[in-house]
Amino acid sequence: MRAFLRACAWVVCTLLTLPFLGPCRGETAGPDTAAFADSVIFMPLHVYIDPGGQPLAAYQVELSDSSASSIIVGIEGGEHPAFRSPPYHDPKALRGNRIALAAFSTARDLPRTRSRVATVHLMAKAAITPVFEPVLSVAATRDGTRIKASVRCEFGDAQ
Amino acid sequence: MTDHHDIRDADLEAPATLLADLRSLYGAPREVPAEVDDTIRRAVWRHFAATPRARIVRYLFPLAAAAAAAAILAILPLSRESIPGDIDGNGEVDILDAFALARRMEATEKIEGGWDMNADGLVDEVDVDLIAAVAVALW
Predict the structure, then answer these.
(1) For A58, which of B96, B106, B138 is closest by C-beta distance?
(2) Contact A23/A34 with Cβ under 8 angstroms?
(3) How far apart are CA A118 and CA A46, in angstroms?
(4) For strand A115-125 and strand A135-140, is the pairing parallel, antiparallel, or unpaired?
(5) H or E stretch including B50?
(6) A79, A95, A152, B139: least surrounded by Cβ within 10 Å?
(7) Does residue A83 belong to the interface with chain B, where contact is any CB pair within 8 Å?
(8) CA atoms of A83 and A116, how far apart (whole Å)
(9) Total domain count for chain B?
(10) Is the CB of B99 less than 8 angstroms away from the CB of A96?
């Protein structure tokens, strides 16, 4: 009888412990990718910078999805040869919804007008449109002089 | 009610005879000639200039001040680049720091050893990449 009661106690204790064996609370592992599994779309987010006639040699842009409805899955370079390589970014930003992009070029030929400097590839919930508000931290000319430039994001065709 | 202050002020009035006696005793104050002043001043200077303390003040104080100024000037550049990778010394690391180092490398300018981010004895593109990585890092 005593052995039976001990076994029952073990079973009850085990059942009571089960709910606490989940993921650690307070972890910042980024958005839950499982939540995107139902119906997702992939869309490019193009980042444009207009240096206002000045040669754009360096830039740093910060992007974040305030709707938290998308995940960054890839980074691509821009259209101008000076910024064709993918910009510097933190690999931790992938699978998150916040990223800082930066690039520079020491080439002679630099964009002076509105140009796509990078493309961010997103995986997003089909029902919600992500909201990205870019912030241009810095833009500079060939000699490192800071310039006033404008930044804008535009979504490409979703797949 | 009596005003005591008025009574006291009236009592302070000295008699005219007392004032006349005092004047006759001491007379009017005499002025000290400028030559006497100069002589006394020189004598005092000679006396105190000969002491060791005066020599310290006279010669060592300017030297100490110059040394302090030199030390401040030497420390200033170090404090400006206290953040690793802050090439332009503006207090933050951004892509312009990486760009500044890349431009100097391209121009084959003399590059300071303090910019060797990975401490491999070389300042090269790896260091530029490391500064750029710091600039875009998500903390």
Answers:
(1) B96
(2) no
(3) 6
(4) unpaired
(5) none
(6) B139
(7) no
(8) 9
(9) 2
(10) no
The number of residues in chain A equals 159
Give φ, ψ of A99 to 5 degrees: -155, 150
ipTM of the complex, rounded to two decimals: 0.74
Interface mutation target, options B94, B99, B101, chain A, most CBs of A under 10 Å: B99
Residue A89 has its nearest CB partner, among B94, B106, B136, at B136
- Exposure class string for A29-48: b at 16+ Cβ within 10 A, else e: eebeeeebeeebeebbbbbb
Q: What's the whole-number average pLDDT of chain B?
A: 79
Contact A104 B138 (CB under 8 A): no
Number of domains in chain A: 1
Q: What is the CATH number of the domain that holds B108?
A: 1.10.1330
Nearest residue in A to B129, CA atom:
A88
Lowest-confidence range among A143-152, B45-54, B98-107?
B45-54
Q: Which residue has the tokens 């998308």?
A: A70
Write out chain A residues lying below 8 Å of B94, CB-based.
60, 102, 137-138
Report whether pLDDT(A76) > 50.
yes
**Cβ pair B102:A104 closer than 8 A:** yes
Any domain includes B94: yes
A139 touches chain B (CB under 8 A): no
Q: Does A59 touch chain B (CB under 8 A)?
A: yes
- The candidate with the shortest Cα–Cα distance to A147, out of A158, A138, A157, A134, is A138
**pLDDT per residue over A77-100, tens digit each?**
999 999 999 999 999 999 899 999
